[in-house]
């Protein structure tokens, strides 16, 4: 992965075009939609049953025909995922000539970006990539991450986001803010977390975050005294 720069990108309002309608294209389209992409177009004479369902509910737009180079115009992301190697290669080469980002399903190095195996837990995103060296290894590590980091992180990540907003508005000192946020993460991963033990008793998320912040402030004060 030495030749790749990892980053997260927002796909809201961006035109994403997927060429192909089989299993690989289906995975690519699902990944885009799950990432919040709202302008996904798929170009293919035929579609898998799952893609047909997505077209039916309006999640994606279907161009029922073969690839044309003009399909690349004004695209933000391109996925060459047909079952024809030469067609995929042509798409990747045309995208490169136009300076467009393209994922080549047939051969990763012929594209300009790769898609990692992803584990989503609310706003927490864990990604694994091998640069095309071994998709099976990436899938294996993904399964390990899914087992290790459960659905409780959906709630925990949401709470950390709210806490961070509260800390930024109430704590003027930057060092103290960072200490409190560090303690919050440690708190979540501690089996003896006082916050976890009282969550069921709290009547609202606002009250929960307020109580948690006060507990963390007390911990920060005790640490400072030492």
TrEMBL record:
Keywords: NAD, Oxidoreductase, Porphyrin biosynthesis. GO terms for biological process: siroheme biosynthetic process. The keyword Oxidoreductase applies. It comes from Paenibacillus nasutitermitis. Residues 121-147 form the Siroheme synthase central domain. InterPro entries: Met8-like, NAD(P)-bd_dom_sf, SirC_C, Sirohaem_synthase_central, Sirohaem_synthase_N. This is precorrin-2 dehydrogenase. SUPFAM superfamilies: NAD(P)-binding Rossmann-fold domains, Siroheme synthase middle domains-like.
